[in-house]
Amino acid sequence: MSREDSALTQRAKMVLDFNWAGSYTQPGPRLYPHQWSWDSAFIAIGYARYKPDRAMQELRHLFESQWTNGLLPQIVFNPQFGEYFPGPNFWHAERSPYASRHRKTSGVVQPPLHATATLRVYQCAEDDAQAQAFLKEAFPHLRAWHEYLYKERDPEREGLVYIRHPWESGMDNSPMWDSIMERIQLRPGEIPSYHRVDTLVEGHEEDRPATATYDRFAYLVQFFAERDYDEARIREGCPFLVQDVLFNALLCQAERDLAEIARILGEDPAPHEARAEQTAQAMNRKLWDEEHSIYLDFDLAAGWPLYVYVAPNFVPLYAGIPDEGRALRMLDALENTGFSLKNKNIVPVPSYDPYGYGFSPTRYWRGPVWININWLLMRGLERYGFDEQATRLRRSIVELVEKGGFYEYFDPTNGKGRGSVFFSWTAALLLDVLMDDKE
To answer: How far apart are CA 340 and CA 49, in angstroms?
Structure first.
């Protein structure tokens, strides 16, 4: 490791130490004081490299907040931080008979990266007995989490689970949701009363979701609470039901990783392997877009694909879902379209196609580069042997942070950091790259 990389490694560790809250890591100071589900999974992957004890505690705190039906909540609230919206009093998660009774949580989920993170922590741990004990502790939580998704979010048993809120995608303000948001017509009396803090804390109001969009975010939360978070009742009239590419690709890989965990523990891996294969086949059958060589989300409420082209929809590469022919076509699309993997004048990879109607280089999920998506794409390119392109993404991850800082996301036109500063998954995934055994 070079002197520069060594210094950057130490700075990344300082960011994670700064955000450590005693039993979990805040995604970022000020704006994100609570525990977020997929943030913690990415963060644990970084901790696994040098602090496996903390990685285990990170995931354990989340698992301890799991609902009894297996739902792993998007947010676990820290009662010390009250000035946050939407807080527990807006979610009314306690209306569900399955909600955690000892911790306040939200009532939605985030992408299921947790089995992948758990297996990575096990693989990196030097204390075999401790690692084995953690794996045994985590396994029933992970199994219940996946069973909830396949039971409650895949009613037709297709092998594809749906999300019911943009927040569940992890890509809150993606242009993918515009057509659905426009379809939700709200009269003044249907908009819940709320007070946003995200536009005040960071000073980047122009980067955040528009008020009309947030009205619909809040409306959906109220919709779930009024139905006591009963999935069957929610499905009956929810205007947002989407089979999301990123979510299902990560679930597919997580099922494979859960199968490996089962194998290590002497449990039966076959059910998890079968579900992973079913999900992969369903994605290839239903979500593949032949014309544009990318996978597309499917809008279940409307009954058609969402023809919006975003970088996260190349993440099936990470899970090994496309065959070699499709993978080569996806690589061509990444390199020779607006995603600009080959274009040295653009910082790869913009989260949304710059040729798209709603592109913005700075607006939340509408164009900025995100380290977690680049990391997933890098690992996917490595999986298929696209080493030259993977190396470019690897270098881009390092250079973005080295030059732009530990920000939440970055402007693809100039590499400038945007959003929350001292962002934890940026630090954690940078550490994973810098400490990679391949380097």
So the answer is: 31
Exposed, middle or buried by CB within 10 Å (0-12, 13-18, 19+), for 303?
Answer: exposed
Of 175, 75, 53, 197, the C-alpha closest to 126 is: 53
pTM: 0.96
Q: Which two tokens stand for residue 296?
A: 């597309």
Which H, E and C letters describe 272-337, residue by residue?
A: HHHHHHHHHHHHHHHHEECCCCEECCEECCCCEECCCCEHHHHHHHCCCCCCHHHHHHHHHHHHHC
Give Cα separations from 427 to 200, 324, 334, 372 (angstroms). Answer: 24, 32, 25, 10
Residues 225 and 248: their CA atoms lie apart, in Å, by 25
Residue type, 264: I
Contact 34, 104 (CB under 8 A): no
What tokens appear for 73 in the block? 């909540």
Other Cβ atoms within 10 Å of 388 Cβ, number:
9
**Catalytic sites, residue numbers:** 172, 408
Based on DSSP, count helices (H) and strands (E) in the chain, helices before strands. Answer: 17, 9
Q: For residue 40, give both structure tokens.
A: 């913690």
Looking only at the bridges linking them, the beta strands covering 242-243 and 298-299 are antiparallel
- pLDDT per residue over 394-424, tens digit each? 999 999 999 999 999 999 999 999 999 999 9
**For residues 208 and 199, is the Cβ–Cβ distance under 8 A?**
yes
Predicted confidence (pLDDT) per residue in 314-357, tens digit: 999 999 999 999 999 999 999 999 998 998 889 999 999 999 99
